[in-house]
Design goal:
Layout (H helix, E strand, L loop, with lengths): L7 E11 L9 E12 L5 E8 L19 E2 L5 E4 L1 E10 L5 E17 L8 E8 L5 E2 L9 E4 L11 H11 L4 E2 H15 L8 H25 L6 E2 L5 H21 L4 H8 L8 H17 L9 H11 L4 H14 L4 H9 L1
Antiparallel strand pairs: 1-2, 2-7, 3-5, 3-8, 4-5, 6-7, 8-9, 8-10, 11-12
């Protein structure tokens, strides 16, 4: 149902053809998928949607080639498309048994084509419906008022999964809480599990070393993305400075242990260290926040809302990130320039 008086029909189709590249014998291959939306709602409606590639609950920005006319991007993971006004007609049978003129009714519809099996395959869509002015949003009332889903079973043979990459992707792509502290702790755990020291020169030992090098390289790429801010640093979770500094210190020690005990991993370990700061014991992280509080007290700076230093102090207490180093540098430049606020913004922007 859409509201009180309308309904939404979602029809899912797929076109199959012979797979000429199959090595195991004749088989069919899904060439294309199509999702058709139809509703009898009288108010103008807009489809708010994204696509899923790897799992049913995923929201990804649809490739532009899939956008129907009138589609506009509204976020990093979704677009919106107005449904098209048209008519739906049904044959009406007269009292004499013959078909009279069709009975036609106003409807709204939208068709979206998705790629089938192959490197661009998508398993389906996530979507909600809203009215044109955005005052009413419609979700799946029969599924806990969650998003609507139109997902296909992926027919392709599943490739051998990489357990470690699976763990990383699920942690990074989830919709729950996630911070640098959690990333550093997970990285420490994975390095300990996947990059242990093995000195054997036997065949199995060589295979193990190759696996460790591959795992270490993947973890380095992950940490490199993090250091370049391509990954989320803070999401739905507050981190105290002592917690972040302790997690950072643990990761640094774990990497240096690998460098010391596994010569075949030393090059990658050095690269990893370049993506993570030194860190410190939990107490050292807390000292930074406490010293700022002491500076406020010595200079009679009030602990009240609206005071810049108090607000930064509270951020350090509950939401520490490496951004705070840049904020500190900008504040020092502000003080050195005789309180020129443009210097503060200059350092931040650079």
């Amino acid at each position: 149902p859409i509201g009180k008086d309308a309904e939404l029909l979602v029809q899912m189709y797929q076109v199959e053809r012979s797979d000429e590249e199959a090595m195991s014998g004749a088989r069919s291959k899904v060439a294309r998928r199509r999702v058709v939306f139809t509703t009898d709602a009288t108010e103008d409606l807009v489809l708010h949607w994204g696509v899923a590639r790897d799992e049913p609950g995923q929201w990804l920005l649809p490739p532009k080639a899939l956008w129907p006319e009138g589609t506009e991007i509204v976020s990093e993971i979704s677009v919106e498309t107005p449904l098209l006004q048209t008519e739906g007609c049904l044959p009406v049978q007269g009292v004499d048994g013959n078909e009279d003129d069709d009975a036609c009714y106003p409807i709204q519809t939208m068709t979206i084509d998705l790629p089938g099996e192959g490197p661009l395959e998508l398993m389906g869509m996530q979507f909600v419906i809203r009215n044109a002015d955005g005052t009413s949003w419609y979700k799946d009332e029969f599924n806990g008022n969650s998003n609507f889903r139109a997902n296909y079973a992926q027919a392709r043979e599943q490739a051998v999964t990489d357990e470690m990459l699976d763990t990383i992707i699920r942690a990074e792509a989830g919709n729950g809480w996630w911070t640098l502290m959690h990333r550093f702790n997970l990285a420490s755990s994975l390095i300990e599990q996947k990059c242990g020291a093995h000195g054997s020169l036997e065949t199995d030992g060589k295979k193990t070393r190759r696996a460790e090098i591959a795992a270490a390289a993947k973890i380095y790429v992950w940490l490199r993305y993090s250091s370049q801010r391509k990954l989320t640093w803070q999401r739905n979770y507050n981190v105290k400075p002592r917690e972040l500094s302790a997690a950072q210190s643990k990761l640094t020690r774990t990497i240096t242990d690998v460098y010391r005990s596994s010569p075949h991993l030393r090059d990658i370990a050095r690269l990893m260290l370049g993506t993570v700061g030194r860190g410190g014991e939990g107490g050292q992280g807390q000292q930074i926040r406490d010293e700022i509080l002491n500076i406020m007290h010595r200079n009679n700076i009030g602990e009240r809302k609206g005071v810049w230093m108090e607000e930064w102090h509270q951020k350090l207490h509950n939401n520490t990130t490496p951004d705070d180093i840049v904020i500190c540098e900008a504040y020092l430049a502000f003080l050195k320039s005789d309180m020129d606020v443009s210097e503060y913004w200059r350092v931040l922007s650079e």
